[in-house]
Amino acid sequence: MNTLANEITRDTGTAAISAADLAKGGTFGGTVGDITAADPRMVCREVNVWYGDKHAIKDVSLDIGKNEVVSMIGPSGCGKSTFLRCLNRMNDTIDGCRVTGSIELDGREIYDKGLDPVPLRAQVGMVFQKPNPFPKSIYENIAYGPRIHGLTNSKAELDELVETSLRKAGLWNEVKDRLDQPGTGLSGGQQQRLCIARTIAVSPEVILMDEPCSALDPIATAIIEELIDELRENYSIAIVTHSMQQAARVSQRTAYFHLGDLVEVGETNQIFTNPSHKLTEDYITGRFG
Amino acid sequence: MNSPAINPGDGTPGPAPAGEPATRRAIDIVNASLKRRYAQERRFRLLGATAVALGLLFVAVLFLDIVAKGYTAFQQTYIHVPVYFDADTLDPTGERDPQTLANADYMGLVKKSLRQLFPEIKERRKLRELYSLVSVGAGVRLQQMVLDHPSVIGTTRDIWLLAGADVDMLIKGHIDRDAPESDRRIKDSALELVDRMIADGRIEKRFNTGFFTNGTSREPEMAGIAGAVMGSFYTLTLTLLFSFPIGVGAALYLEEFAPKNRWTDLIEVNINNLAAVPSIVFGLLGLAVFINIFGVPRSTPLVGALVLTLMTLPTIIIASRAALKSVPPSIREAALGVGASPLQTQFHHVLPLAMPGMLTGTIIGMAQALGETAPLLMIGMIAFIVDIPSGFTDAATVLPVQIFLWADSPERGFVERTSAAILVLLGFLFLMNLAAVILRRRFERRW
Predict the structure, then answer these.
(1) Do A122 and B447 touch (CB under 8 A)?
(2) What total of structural domains would you count in chain A?
(3) Distance (Å, rounded) from C-alpha B403 to C-alpha B398?
(4) What is the domain partition of chain B in residue ranges?
(5) pLDDT one-digit tens code per residue, A174-202
(6) Nearest Cβ partner for B339 among A93, A128, A202
(7) CA distance between the termini of chain B
(8) Could you report the predicted ipTM of this complex, rounded to two decimals?
(9) Spacing of C-alpha B266 from chain mean position
(10) For B80-113, how does the pLDDT look when each residue is reduced to its tens digit (9 = 90+)?
């Protein structure tokens, strides 16, 4: 993966795109590449999102495969986070946000009128950009989700679930002696791992990560990227990232977004060494971003 | 030849070095205006300091005035008299029947004991003067003693009897001995008796427990704030019980669950306006709706609490909404992301974090309600009520109204008692605000 990261920095020799040219918008005639996955967990077709009158996501179709990491890259404001938030209906909490199209989780349409978003969010967990542990003890942070969903029957089972989640998140050894200390007292990287542990404690099927490492130092980032690789064995992960190198390091498939359109999707290797669409190539080689 | 770039001494950037073209740099203009700006700031600071000092001065003067007038009320004059509990007067049948004992003539005993102290006084007018030195409440004290311990019948006990209001004022120095007799409430002959008793060591000032345990009374020496304090206590308890859940619930609904449309805007505007409505209007509302339409008993803590609830709801709602707005949205997102329902998110995460602000608002609202007089006058809590209320539907009065009534009374003894009651009220308000500050400090969280 690291050699791939090195390859990204090659320069095509041409100058950067001017601001005026960029504002005109690139030529876009439809998504390039294979949007489907072999064994899809989530299937999205023709998704459109409006914030009031602003058309933020335009006709995006994408699959999230089982046990794979899909990364979504693109310049700021291109709609990656918006699309991610559609996958667990977090956009419901925003006034004036309208979503059309079809998003299915294991064959069931999640934007169905009758579907309760509460258990959906237990199946599709989310880790946010800025670590946001509850201002409660570390134990309580992990235990809250299982408790409200009734996943365990006894205190002993809950203790075990907390320990398992913390182990899976790679945090157990650091906090096992201070489970009753407030979660907000940990360092940034530890807090983010705590949030990941909190997410996997409710046994989701898909984990959404919205720029999880952007607020962390490189060492904490490396720890979390290793963690993502381990989590891949049990969960499907969709990660939004600003760093192309990170996308190259952790994901199997990569989707490039540009101003609300899904420009290109494909194997991470292929996207970063031999992109098909010109916009993708311009972004990857750093002509804008 | 080069002038320094920075002026030594005051640190301001210096003028352009000599030899450069005479175009004015921006920094020269800044320097020129500096003096005026600093002078303006000095004047402003001086004004601010003066305002603060004046404010503190007025508070000090007010406080000292109240304390000076009121501190004497915490002491009460008593007269030491040996009282013979005559069995013939108290219990002629010898059966110790409580009814008989209760109805016996205790003042007669007091008068007899006084006559025995001053056997030389025979004339009726002078005897009346003698009797007036002791309060009519002294008889009540003796009655209580006999009912509690019937064994005192037949014995002589030395009792500290409550002195009358005039003697009380004299001992505390509020009556001027040197004024001409026609201007004084105590005539010279009575003065003589008092001086003799002082010489005998029979007059003493003690801590006025009666002030805290008695209800109000026409006689200043027997008047106390217990009735008013209990009335305030019951009223405020009910007010808290009603206004806190309604206020917090309304704020939670308006902030988190209500759709943002014209109706909710209208409600918000109305709530903000209600906070500014004169409190007597709530009293009129209480009179018209609660008492006339719903038939809630008049002059009770129940109806007082209903009126005060209406008054403090806007305060609580506005403070609670501000507290809810201050909870960062990341907490809500985190809770929703784990699969909490909207109600669970609010009650398990948002509300606990907003609680300090809500509690502060509530305590401030309660402190306001404690000092309210006007609305309670309209619903009848101005009546003269001697009994100490024991429930939510007993007729009662509240402390500010009691102060208002005492301030109106002509007796001299009520002047000091009014000020003392004001001190008690201020003490309660101070404690409540202190509690608000402590609560806020304790629960402040750092993200």
Answers:
(1) no
(2) 1
(3) 9
(4) 73-220, 226-443
(5) 999 999 999 988 998 999 999 999 999 99
(6) A202
(7) 57
(8) 0.86
(9) 36
(10) 888 888 888 777 777 777 888 888 888 888 888 8
